[in-house]
Amino acid sequence: MGRSTSDTWLGPTRHLCALPSVASAAMPFICGSDEHGAAITIRAKKEGISPQEIIDKYHALNKQTFEQLGISFDHYDRTSAPLHHETAQAFSLKLIEKGGELEERLSEQYFDEEYQQFLADRYIMGECPNCANPEAYGDQCEKCGATLSPMELKNPKSMLSGATPVLRETSHWYFRLDKHGDWLREWIKTGVLDGHQHHDPATWKKHVVGQCLSWLDDGEGLQPRSITRDLDWGIPVPMPGAEGKVLYVWFDAPIGYISSTKQWAADNGKNWEDYWKGDNVELIHFIGKDNIVFHCIVFPAMLKAHGDYALPVNVPANQFLNFEGRKFSKSKGWGIEQHEYLEEFANFPNKEDALRWALIRNLPENKDADFKWDEFVDFYDKDLADKLGNFINRVIVLTNNYFDGNVPMPFIGNRRIADF
Description:
Blueprint: E1 2-4, E2 15-18, E3 21-22, E4 30-33, H1 38-47, H2 51-68, E5 75-78, H3 82-98, E6 102-112, E7 117-118, E8 124-127, E9 136-137, E10 154-158, E11 166-175, H4 181-190, E12 192-193, E13 196-197, H5 206-217, E14 225-226, E15 228-229, E16 246-247, H6 249-267, E17 281-286, H7 292-306, E18 312-314, E19 321-323, H8 338-344, H9 351-361, E20 369-371, H10 373-403, E21 411-412, E22 415-416
Parallel strand pairs: 4-5, 17-18, 19-20
Antiparallel strand pairs: 1-2, 2-17, 3-17, 6-7, 6-11, 8-9, 8-10, 11-14, 12-13, 15-16, 21-22
Helix pairs in contact: 1-2, 3-6, 4-5, 5-7, 9-10
C-alpha cells in the first residue's frame, strides 16, 4: 500500500508503497494521491484555480496514467476522501485522549504581511545552511537532501509575494517525538520491540539504518514536531480552539495508508483491522530515501503512540533516481512526468515496456542512479531489441526448423515433466 504525489513522475522514488500482509488473507495492493501538500496550493495560486480543482485534475490524471502504463491497484484512493478526514481526525483525538503524546505550544512562525497569512514550510525559500544552495525550502534542501526548519534558512523569502516574511506568534499542537527515541533506537538497531524480536535488522539496507541512527544520535536527538498549521487547505484540526488550523500534511498523509485500507476492505467485505493489527501482520514500506525518516521513525512512533497497530518489518528504501545529472524537482520543472512521456511516445508501440525496463535496469537500490535519454535508447536497442529480440527469434527459428513449430515437452532425466 502506498501513495503517489499529486503529480505522476518518472522516478520510482516518487511512488511510495507499503504492503500490509496477512498469512491467511489476500494481500491488497493499495495506492493513492496525497492531496494536502503545500505544493498543491502553490500550483493552484499560480494557475488561478482552487486547490480542489488541482487535486481533482491530477487525481484523475494519476489513475489514467497508471492504467496506461499497465500498473493496477486493488484500490486507488485519495487523502481528500471523507473517510480519510475522519480517520486522521480520530487518530489525532486518540493521541490527545491517551495523554502525553500531543501538547499545545506557542511558537513563532513566518508570516507574509502582503498576503496576510502564515507560511507553510514549503512556502519559504532561502539559503541552505549546510550547502549554501540559495533555493532551499523551509523543510528540505533538494540539493544536499538535508532536512531543515524555516528558521535555519538564511535570507528567507516568501514564495507567495517574494518579500521577506516576519515572525509572528501562533499556537500549535506538537507530537512528542522526543519521548520515543530510546525504543526506536533499539527497534531499528536490534529489531526488538517491547522485549520481543519484531524483525531481523540484518535484512534492512545499511543506508536506511544509517540515516535513522543519524537522526536518533546526532545533536540533541529527536524533537517534538508540530502536527498543525495555520492554513485554509487540509484536514481541520478537531481540537477545541483550533479554528483556522489544519493537520500538517506529514501527519495526515501516512494515515492515508490506514484509511485507504479501510475503504478497500469496505468495498470487498473484509475487516481492515486484519491488515493493520495483530501479531501475524507484516507491514513493508517501499519508498525513496527522502522519506526514510518519516517511515522508519515518525510514522512508527505515531502508530506505537496510538496503540494496537503493527509496525513495519522492513523499509527497503531506494536511493535517488536523478535525471540527466540533476535531482528530479517538480517545483523547478526538472524531470519527466509519466503522462507527458506517454503523450510524446504515443506512436511508439512498446513505450510501456521500454520505460519499465529502463527503470528496472537502472534501479537505484543501493546508490543513486541517473536516467539519461541516451542510455534509455541504448537499453531499448541493445537490451530489448538486440539481445532479447535475437534470443526470441533464435528460439522461434529452431522450434520451426527442428520441432515443426511445436514447443517440445521438457524432460527431467528421461521423464517428461507432464509425467510428474
